């Protein structure tokens, strides 16, 4: 059954609670909705049938109406000039649409149908006078290229073609590494940590020596005729260390 403003309004319940008890589909309060419709409302959602019909037909009521909630004159805001919804633009094959609402940056401009983004926000930027893409620099064999954009540290400088890193950042990092390396070397020099470390040849000058107790055991075992492998097994030292000591004594 089609619901209109005058169709059997008095036969419906006046409250939503009564309509729920009687299993009615609509109810009528006699009060206008926020858009000025004094018509039936649906029991399931409490929606004005007049507003629902206007929404389905895509109609807009520019006539001022009285809000049932605030009781003040609340004129319906008309659509802006040049209004075109995204759905209509897509159906007509147009690349842009306009709804008259500002974007996140405050631009009241057209938007792209493809992604809904503001046209003003995504306008192509003017390239820097010294602009040189990475592909062009690679083709010309140049070590650096320039995009005109700042790096993550705020440097407006060329970038290396090999890895795309900022030249100023690389120079600052190299300088900092040299400073830290100098500080480490100074600490080693002050605390005496510049002695060679790790495995070294047995005949290298300054190589470590056996403990006096181990030296005494090695001398006694060599005098008794023991070979070097037996000596290493007893004192639990490396072959090169024991051989170096025995060769020098």
* Average pLDDT taken over every residue: 77
Return the string of H and E elements. Answer: HEEHEEHEEHEEHHHH
Distance between the termini: 119 Å
Count of helical segments?
Answer: 8
The main β sheet shows up as:
2 strands, antiparallel
The counted number of beta strands is 8
Q: What strand line-up does the widest sheet have?
A: 1-2
Q: Provide the structure class.
A: mainly alpha
Number of domains: 4
Q: Which ranges are low-confidence, i.e. pLDDT below 50, for 5 or more consecutive residues?
A: 1-6, 60-74, 199-207
Radius of gyration based on Cα positions: 44 Å
Helical residue percent? 25-40%
Instruction: Give the DSSP E fraction (strand runs of 2 or more residues).
Output: 5-15%
Q: How does the overall form come out from the CA principal axes?
A: elongated
Features:
mainly alpha, 8 helices, 4 domains, two-stranded antiparallel sheet
Summarize the structure.
34% of the residues lie in helices and 6% in strands.
Can you tell me about this structure?
With 249 residues, the chain is mainly alpha-helical. The chain has 4 domains: 9-74, no CATH class; 79-123, no CATH class; 127-193, no CATH class; 212-248. Helix content is 34%, strand content 6%. The chain contains 8 helices and 8 strands. The protein has a two-stranded antiparallel sheet. A hairpin with a 6-residue loop joins strand 3 (65-66) and strand 4 (73-74). Helix 6 runs antiparallel to helix 7 (228-235). The longest helix has 25 residues, at 167-191. The radius of gyration is 44 Å and the shape is elongated. The N and C termini lie far apart (119 Å). The model is unreliable at 1-6, 60-74 and 199-207 (pLDDT under 50).
């Amino acid at each position: 059954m089609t619901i209109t403003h005058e169709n059997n309004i008095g036969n419906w319940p006046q409250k939503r609670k009564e309509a729920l008890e009687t299993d009615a589909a609509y109810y009528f309060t006699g009060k206008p909705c926020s858009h000025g419709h004094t018509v039936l409302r649906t029991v399931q959602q409490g929606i004005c049938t007049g507003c629902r019909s206007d929404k389905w037909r895509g109609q807009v009521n520019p006539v001022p109406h009285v809000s049932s909630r605030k009781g003040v004159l609340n004129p319906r805001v008309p659509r802006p000039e040049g209004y075109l919804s995204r759905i209509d633009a897509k159906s007509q094959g147009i690349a842009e649409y306009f709804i008259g609402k500002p974007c996140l940056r405050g631009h009241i401009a057209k938007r792209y149908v493809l992604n809904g983004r503001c046209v003003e926000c995504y306008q192509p930027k003017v390239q820097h006078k010294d602009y040189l893409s990475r592909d062009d620099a690679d083709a010309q064999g140049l070590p650096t290229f320039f995009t005109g954009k700042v790096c993550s540290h705020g440097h407006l400088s060329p970038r290396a073609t090999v890895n795309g890193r900022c030249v100023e950042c690389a120079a600052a990092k190299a300088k900092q590494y040299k400073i830290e390396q100098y500080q480490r070397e100074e600490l080693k020099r002050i605390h005496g940590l510049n002695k060679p470390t790790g495995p070294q040849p047995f005949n290298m000058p300054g190589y470590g020596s056996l403990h006096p107790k181990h030296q005494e055991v090695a001398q006694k075992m060599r005098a008794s005729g023991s070979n070097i492998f037996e000596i290493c097994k007893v004192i639990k030292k490396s072959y090169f260390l024991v051989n170096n000591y025995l060769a020098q004594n």
